[in-house]
Specification:
Blueprint (H helix, E strand, L loop, with lengths): L3 E5 L1 E4 L4 E7 L8 E6 L6 E6 L4 E3 L7 E6 L4 E6 L8 E7 L6 E2 L3 E6 L1
Parallel strand pairs: 2-11
Antiparallel strand pairs: 1-3, 3-8, 4-5, 4-9, 5-6, 7-8, 9-10, 9-11
């Protein structure tokens, strides 16, 4: 069992920035790490993912969000810039993929207009 603990998030005005962090209780070196979000009434969607060498972003966040990882700290980050009201959602960290991976507790991000 791997515990995944998220931090960061909160309330920000449109155009602002936030950084989310996600720390696992075990090594993430060989894990694909991802950030997902779920807005009220909508399905959970991929925000960004990072493998050992590649990154992937949802179309709505490309150019604004950056995912990075520090394997030495078992931590993955999501830097969110130029935030928009439509980015408002609960953000979840995932370690190891959505099929059999591990999920963080969720973090609310609210962007006011």
């Amino acid at each position: 069992q791997v515990n995944v603990v998220q931090s960061g998030g909160g309330l920000v005005q449109a155009g602002g920035s936030l950084r989310l962090s996600c720390t696992a209780s075990a090594s993430i070196t060989f894990y694909t790490m991802g950030w997902y979000r779920q807005a009220p009434g909508k399905q959970r969607e991929l925000v960004a993912s990072i493998t050992r060498g590649d990154t992937n972003y949802g179309d709505s966040v490309k150019g604004r969000f950056t995912i990075s990882r520090d394997n030495g700290k078992n931590t993955v980050y999501l830097q969110m810039n130029s935030l928009k009201p439509e980015d408002t959602a609960v953000y979840y960290c995932n370690a190891g993929g959505t099929a059999i991976g591990y999920w963080g507790q969720g973090t609310q991000v609210t962007v006011s207009s």
